[in-house]
Amino acid sequence: MDKKKIFLIACKDYNFYNFRSELILKLVELGFDVTLVCPKGNKIAYFVDRGCHFVGHTMDRRGMNPFKDLVLIRTYYKIFKEGQPDLVLSYTTKSVLYSGIACRLLRIPYIVNNAGLLEPSNYNPIVGICLTIFYKLGFKGASCMMYQNSRERDVLNSILRNKIPYRDIPGSGVNLDDFEYSKYPNESEPITFNYVGRLVRIKGINDFLICAERIKAIYPKIRFIIYGDYDEDVYRQRVHELQKRGIVEYAGVQMNMKPFISKAHAVIHASYYEGMTNVVLEHSAMGRVCIGSDIPGIKEGIDEDETGFLFHCKNVDELVSAVEKFINLPYDKKVAMGKAAREKMEREFDRNIVTNIYIEEINRILQRK
Questions:
Q1: DSSP strands (E only) in 280-365
Q2: How confident is the model at residue 1 (pLDDT cuts 50, 70, 90)?
Q3: Where does the source fall among the domains of life (predicted)?
Q4: What is the pLDDT of residue 43?
């Protein structure tokens, strides 16, 4: 009997390596013929060595020209027509939209994990209508939608008229063996806050920088460290100036954040939108307190006053208050909150939960073929 072919689609190889490794290797273990489709990267060899196939292509991950991106639909169409997958699993916004259209044209079952909702209501009417059309084109034929938060579920189910089967998942989950609990920094060490993410307004970098300035004026020994790449050049000069003044430290992109999470006391995640934030999940798994905006995709990972603090999105005054509240907690309370954060991850966000849901849906869909 021929093996069932499963293709996984993403915009970058590290998406597979960081967030889907457990599922991919489980599929290989179960006897599926697994192919990864994305631009070539240095993590692909890891999967090929473990029995996966790879099909590479080029794409502009952040371009917003739909006419230019029509080429991507043709690329996916050719890959799928030649490879004849029994099922496609797609991840990240651009990949899921265009691979979904290709799957519909070829009548191939596919599972969508969007994790990058752009709400039509947040844009001018023309852009909003275009987004709605693209969501319908890309998702209407899906065999299952995997929703990472309640807002994403409600918006997309409304657009799709509640006609597509769906499952709620805790984001990508977190690998609890990889992100082990780490002993809290010593009480004598200066309190350190991490920022992890692209340096772009919607990820809350502006709020973080304002907060750092205000807190350092009162607590000069506090450290604010930024990990990530510049997505908007406007922040390059600003961060450089704040570095010279000793307000923030810029540590660039780190492919392995674990050593830097272990040195921190807490993470500040002031993002304006998330699917389900891995920043909070990974810091929490290692026993660090999380201070985050109260939006879907962040708030699910934080229990107020138990594992961290929430503040209204874009409200810098509330962010500063939350940071100051954390600073003034007794050391033992900080440690206890970090341990509670780890326990929450064990209960609710173990990556095995996500893997098991995917296996259930894959078996359900393939049994119908």
A1: 289-293, 308-311
A2: low
A3: Bacteria
A4: 95
Residues 158 and 277 in one domain: no
In a domain, 183, yes or no: no
At which residue do the structure tokens 């993002």 appear?
271
Do 310 and 293 touch, CB atoms closer than 8 A?
yes
d(CA 257, CA 196): 9
Contact 193, 267 (CB under 8 A): yes
CATH number for the domain that contains residue 106: 3.40.50.2000
Q: Measuring CA to CA, how many Å separate 145 from each of 10, 111, 191?
A: 16, 6, 41
Burial class, 308, CB count within 10 angstroms (exposed 0-12 / middle 13-18 / buried 19+): buried
Shared domain check, 122 and 204: no
Token couple for 132 = 């709605």
Distance CA 272, CA 296 (A): 10
Q: Which residues contact 88 (CB under 8 A, 6 or more apart)?
A: 6, 7, 8, 9, 80, 99, 103, 108, 109, 110, 111
Same domain, 90 and 223: no
Instruction: Read off the pLDDT of residues 265-312 as tens digits, 9 standing for 90 and up.
Output: 999 999 998 989 999 999 999 999 999 999 999 999 999 999 999 999
Return the structure tokens found at 350.
């173990």
Which residue has 């780490």 as its token pair? 182
Residues 6+ apart with CB under 8 A from 82: none
HSE of 235, CA atoms in CB hemisphere, 13 A? 21
Residue 187 located in a structural domain:
no
At 102 the three-state DSSP class reads: helix
- What 3-state class would DSSP assign to 179? coil
CB neighbours of 254 closer than 8 A, spacing ≥ 6?
A: 227, 260
Residue-level length of the chain: 369
Distance CA 323, CA 319 (A): 6
Q: Is there a single domain that holds both residue 196 and residue 280?
A: yes
End-to-end CA distance of the chain: 15
Q: Which residue range forms the structural domain that includes residue 63? A: 5-173+350-368
3-state DSSP assignment of residue 297:
coil
Q: How many domains does the chain have?
A: 2
Q: Are 220 and 304 contained in the same domain? A: yes
SS3 199: strand
| Residue 179, domain member (yes or no) | no
